[in-house]
Amino acid sequence: MDLVHPVPPPRRPAEQLEPVIGAARYARLRSAANEFKAAFGDRTVWNVNSTAAGGGVAEMLQVLVGYVEDLGIAIRWLVIHGDADFFAVTKRLHNGIHGYGDAAAIDPAEADHYRSVLLANAAELRQLVRPGDIVLLHDPQTAGLAGPLADAGALVVWRSHIGADTASEASEAAWEFLRPHVSAAHAWVFSRRSYVPAWLDSSRVWIIPPSIDPFSAKNQEMDSGTAHAILATIGLIDGKAGSAGRFVRRDGILGEVTRPASVIADDLPGPGDDVLVQVSRWDRLKDMAGVMHGFARYVASRRDCHLSLVGPAVTDVADDPEGAVVYRECLAQWRTLPAPARSRIMLVTLPLDDVEENAAMVNAVQRHASIVTQKSLAEGFGLTVAEAMWKGRPVIGSAVGGINDQIAPGTGVLLPEPADLRGFGLAVRELLDDPPRRNRLGESAHAYVRQNFVGDFHLLRYAALFSALRAGDGQR
Ligand code: UDP
């Protein structure tokens, strides 16, 4: 295999979920797994996406594939290969679906390239996938595989992790491009109903929100001493680490954060200082620059607080070609800030050489934050929101896309106008001034995520979808 590569996440004991989700939910998960095995025998479930690390899809596959394996179901995860031109096209499709960019201008040569890269990947996949196997394709990067794999006799489900609540010229153009590819799948999954294009047969559409894993290095319990140690080790707070920044790896072995982050800062916050944090890829739609300017203009001079903008190392997310450009733009803008504001703002990139070490860094960053924000201009779901809520952090999120599904009344703050920097600054200041409210929001946030966004529901929905597919009705 030259193009397609397996990712083997370690098996994760499903029974560890029981204390978190309770006996009744755990029993449902077990019996769904048994029913699935009885119905599907040794058929394999294949997940196919375009990166093993960085971004929400990889984050979820790392976890869910491990649990499903432990439940005794044959499941595999494969990553396709594409070149820079291919990912430039898929990024335009990604932005287009969110209502931005120039997907309409994708020319026939670029469309041909998209098709031919995926046909080459499909040829390798067809050597692995047997008729009757289930193939779960993730996002526009894989849509062109649906036809070839359906022709090979697989049951093909295509999942879009992105979407916009309202159609626009850009989103119509991206969907028009994808339509012939996507239409070849037997069923489709979206994170929200409003993301579903009108031309899809709604009886074969499933709505399945994403989920987080309480035991991953990203979300596992971490005491404040360890969080401090990690932040000091990677260079995000002033002072010495004191102890080792340890975390538990998926295979149960202890890991330790040792690599430094790359930090751009004039000054570092002390361990006890308030910090506002946004963790995300360097993607324009996450609006790191907007967070920076909103903070500089409306918070920095009025409250004693720091801002940390944290994303992955820009060369490391294979399918995100704009990352480096967006990061450089933020850096250039940071340099032009007035010195007093600039001294409160850090730009941080975290190494992705070891995905779990990177996750432990994110865990420490989120846990240490006084407030976590996700001021996206568009957002499919926004796992970073659920991650921070799970950690009992008060979250200020834009009222866009899936963030609306996560921040229920009393569990965080929704910004009605994501581009309104003044409104954003005001929301930050209000929360900084009211620690009891921050605690209340954090507690409700944790409970809400436990109730709605832990992986068992996610897996149960997939099991129901696959059973319906097998029964040939695809009904939701
Ligand atoms: N993330 C990470 N390391 C980083 C930056 C981000 O692991 O350095 C993770 C983040 O914690 C979250 C995922 O990337 O799990 C981003 O998912 P989200 O749904 O928020 O956005 P997406 O990137 O899928 O648009």
Question: What would you note in describing this structure?
Answer:
The chain is α/β, with parallel strands linked by helices. The chain folds into two domains: 5-211 and 454-471, Glycogen Phosphorylase B (Rossmann fold), CATH 3.40.50.2000; 224-452, Rossmann fold. 43% of the residues lie in helices and 15% in strands. The protein contains 16 helices and 16 strands. It has helices at 18-40, 56-70, 84-97, 108-128, 146-151, 169-182, 224-234, 288-298, 323-335, 339-342, 355-368, 383-390, 403-406, 421-432, 435-452, 455-470; strands spanning 5-6, 45-49, 75-79, 134-138, 155-160, 187-190, 205-207, 246-248, 254-256, 262-264, 274-279, 305-312, 345-350, 371-374, 395-398, 413-415. It has a seven-stranded mixed β-sheet. Helix 6 (169-182) links the parallel strand 5 (155-160) and strand 6 (187-190). The longest helix is centred in the N-terminal third of the chain and has 23 residues, at 18-40. The chain is globular, with a radius of gyration of 22 Å. Bound molecules: uridine-5'-diphosphate (UDP). Uridine-5'-diphosphate (UDP) binds next to helix 2, strand 12, helix 11 and helix 12.
